């Protein structure tokens, strides 16, 4: 084996989960050889709206869906390609995710326990498809709420796009949330907040501020996610399997809103937020 080949192999072994495409992310988490992709690029299922606006579409519309197994248990999986239109969701991509979740619901109704894993690398609704994207996200959320009664719905947020907009609400509905240091989770993205409230309120170029408020460490410390892991394929796979083994939570995060709401109502919005104050506000009075 040549030195060049050895170097290439070492570089491949060092790739983290973030470096993988949406398709490879699913493949890396599922049991070896169990992945069966549905509606592949060969089906040429593209958005009918992008070309009309001068945007080159993608044959999978930036969303990969598949069936497979985790620890020999049936699961469905979906991953959003953050490199295509910022991971934004439109009519087709959203319908694919909703469809795979509805497939899992039907399997559970038939007595075949089937969980779901969602890899969310998305800025939310695709602006070019507006209401169609919103409708698709609503269908995804409805499917999650039904499916999570049967089996866990596990969301993974890694980076570099993060998870924002309507899809951050979607993430909050999942049974379990896993995040990395590079991952971010928030309702509105930094540039949107800066545009609407001004740079004095939120400087989208201040990476320390942004990750300090919405990054993986902060979200885990404040209890908004369930697991914090390194950007490592093996670590993520182990965390997903642990969530699957934990089963359906006794109480879903989205059903436990009274305590977080009370803490938020005590926050003084007249003062500039920072990571330390945000963490204190979201954790005060919280039991371990």
UniProtKB/TrEMBL annotation:
One Pfam family, short name: Carboxyl_trans
State whether keyword Transferase applies. Answer: yes
InterPro entries listed in its UniProt record: AcCoA_carboxyl_beta, ClpP/crotonase-like_dom_sf, COA_CT_N, Malonate_beta
Report the residue ranges that make up the CoA carboxyltransferase N-terminal domain in this protein: 1-252
What's the domain of life for this entry?
Bacteria
State the UniProt keywords alphabetically. Transferase
> Which protein are we looking at?
Biotin-independent malonate decarboxylase subunit beta
Name the source organism: Marinobacterium zhoushanense
């Amino acid at each position: 084996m040549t030195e060049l080949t050895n170097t290439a192999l070492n570089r491949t072994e060092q790739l983290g989960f973030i470096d993988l495409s949406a398709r490879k992310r699913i493949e890396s988490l599922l049991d070896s050889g169990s992945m069966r992709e549905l509606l592949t690029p060969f089906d040429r299922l593209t958005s009918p709206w992008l070309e009309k606006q001068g945007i080159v579409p993608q044959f999978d519309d930036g969303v990969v869906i598949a069936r497979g197994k985790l620890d020999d248990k049936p699961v469905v999986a979906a991953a959003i390609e953050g490199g295509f239109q910022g991971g934004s969701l439109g009519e087709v991509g959203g319908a694919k995710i909703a469809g795979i979740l509805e497939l899992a619901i039907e399997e559970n109704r038939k007595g075949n326990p089937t969980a779901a894993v969602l890899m969310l690398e998305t800025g939310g609704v695709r602006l070019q498809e507006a209401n169609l994207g919103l409708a698709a996200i609503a269908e995804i959320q409805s499917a999650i709420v039904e499916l999570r009664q049967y089996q866990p719905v596990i969301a993974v947020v890694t980076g570099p796009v993060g998870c924002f907009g309507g899809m951050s609400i979607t993430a909050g509905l999942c049974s379990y949330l896993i995040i990395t240091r590079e991952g971010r989770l928030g309702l509105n993205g930094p540039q949107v907040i800066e545009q609407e409230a001004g740079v004095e309120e939120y400087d989208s170029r201040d990476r320390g501020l942004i990750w300090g408020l919405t990054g993986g460490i902060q979200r885990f410390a404040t209890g908004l996610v369930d697991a914090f892991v390194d950007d490592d394929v093996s670590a993520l796979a182990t965390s997903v399997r642990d969530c699957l083994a934990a089963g359906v939570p006794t109480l879903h995060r989205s059903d436990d809103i009274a305590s977080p709401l009370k803490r938020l109502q005590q926050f003084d919005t007249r003062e500039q937020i920072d990571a330390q104050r945000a963490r204190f506000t979201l954790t005060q009075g919280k039991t371990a």
